[in-house]
Automatic annotation (TrEMBL):
It comes from Aldrovandia affinis. This is Uncharacterized protein. It comes from the Eukaryota. Residues 195-219 are annotated as: Disordered.
């Protein structure tokens, strides 16, 4: 999305400013429906007012591989399919020369970033060159893992009697579990509730602030 277009941003701001937000509140039965309706409407206004542009990227593309290099690569492929050896030789030479020049310019830009002590940009560029990707952390929202933890800690709640003890005797029974065991078990939930909506932070910045909106529904 092109947020640099001031006219489009102003149009979006006018659209959101002229909206009757009480309509969403009266048409909703609870807070979840109200929030989902508002965020969906904001996304709808953004799609209408803010222009979008589609860009195609490939996983093997390097940051120094510019749009001109893509055109030269396509020209080399067309020359190869045409069967013209002279044209193919010229296309290969032009493509190879352009690659060396693009690498040199990108190397100079990295050197300038190092000289300017811009370590964040340097490391970001190195990760793009090496195609390094951080490993995503394992999700803890696993129902089986939660059940295993509950089963592990619930063993403290079980009343075990020794084989030689009298079942009617209260002197040999195991004392009740400590309170912190019960608190920990009650803290573990078998599932977590995910938010029913998602809104981009940039959308919320553009949307006007609510004017003391009441959260009582069904009025």
């Amino acid at each position: 999305m092109n947020w640099s277009n001031r006219e489009a941003v102003e149009e979006l701001r006018d659209c959101l400013g002229s909206t009757d937000w009480d309509t969403f509140r009266t048409a909703s039965n609870n807070l979840d429906e109200y929030t989902e309706a508002v965020t969906s409407y904001i996304s709808f206004c953004v799609d209408i007012c803010i222009p979008t542009r589609t860009r195609v990227s490939y996983n093997n593309d390097k940051p120094w591989f510019t749009a001109r290099l893509r055109q030269l690569r396509l020209e080399k492929e067309r020359a190869f399919k045409s069967g013209d050896k002279d044209r193919l030789r010229l296309a290969r030479y032009t493509f190879t020369k352009a690659i060396k020049e693009a690498k040199r310019q990108y190397s100079e830009r990295l050197e300038q970033q190092v000289s300017a002590n811009d370590s964040a940009s340097v490391w970001r560029g190195l990760r793009e060159i090496t195609n390094y990707k951080t490993k995503s952390p394992h999700s803890m929202n696993d129902l089986r893992l939660t059940n295993d933890l509950n089963e592990f800690y619930c063993r403290f709640d079980r009343q075990w009697n020794s084989p030689d003890s009298d079942p009617d005797s209260d002197s040999h029974t195991q004392p009740p579990p400590n309170s912190y065991h019960i608190s920990f078990i009650s803290f573990i939930q078998p599932e977590q509730r995910h938010p029913p909506f998602y809104s981009r932070p940039r959308h919320l910045q553009t949307a006007p602030a609510p004017h003391h909106t009441s959260l009582h529904f069904g009025e």
